[in-house]
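Can't paste images in this forum, so I'm doing it all in text. The chain is below; anyone willing to post the predicted C-alpha cells underneath?
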Amino acid sequence: MKKLHFISTALMAGALMVACSGKKAEVVPVPEQQSTDFVNITDVVPDVILEIRYFGTYNFVGARIDGYEQPTALLTRQAADSLKAVSDDLMKQGYRLKIYDAYRPQKAVDHFVRWGKDVKDTLMKRYFYSNECKDSLFIKDYIAIQSGHSRGSTLDLTLFDMRTEKEVDMGGTFDWFGRESHPDYCGNPESGEYTGENGALTAQQFENRMILRRAMMAHGFKPYGCEWWHFTLKDEPYPDTYFQFPVHEL
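Text version of the structure:
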C-alpha cells in the first residue's frame, strides 16, 4: 500500500456543488507546514468501482475538471479504513460500492466557481439542473467556495448490484441540483419510513437510498441533508484543513 505526505500552502478552500444550509462558506487559513496522509481508495478497498465523473465530461460542467489528473479516488487513511468496513458489510448484502468523487482539490473549486459565473454555459443543463436557472445557482448555494471534499474524508458514492450487474436505482442521478436529491425526499431517513410524496420515488428507490445510508452511518460516516450520495467521516482527521494537491495515483 502506498502512502504520500503532502504539504499544503496558506489559504485553501473547497467547493460544494449542492449546499442547503443557507450559510456562507468561510475560507480557512492553513499553516504553511500542514501535512497529512492520503491513500488510494482502491489500495484499501479493492472491491470498489470507480466512476470519477470530474475526470471525464459527463458532469454538470460538461468538461474535465481542473485538478483531476487521473481517474482515481483519494481519501485520508482513516476514512478509507472506515469505508473498507462499509464495503465488507454491503458485500454480504450483495452490493459493491461505486465512487463518483472523493478528495477534491482547490483547482476543482476554482473551476466550479468560474463555471457558475458563466451563465451562458448551459451545456449540461438538461442532465443536471433542468429545473433551475443558472443565474440562481450561487443564490441558492448550489455553487459555493468551500467543500468537505477538500478535507479528504468526504466522498460521493452509490451502490452496484452484484446480482444484476447494474448500478442500483436510486431514483435520481448523482449531482442533480434539486429537492429530489435530498435524503428526506419521499420519506423519513431517520426512521426509514417511505411516505411517497406524490410518488416521485418508489418505495424501492427510497429503500435503496436507505441501504447505502444505513451502512455508511453504521461505520462512522455522517450523511448530508441535501444529497443522498454524500457522506463525511464523523471523526475526520482534518476538520479545518482544505488541501489543494491534484488527484492522481499515489
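DSSP finds five helices and 13 strands in the chain. Residues 4-233 form a domain with the Muramoyl-pentapeptide Carboxypeptidase; domain 2 fold (CATH 3.30.1380.10).
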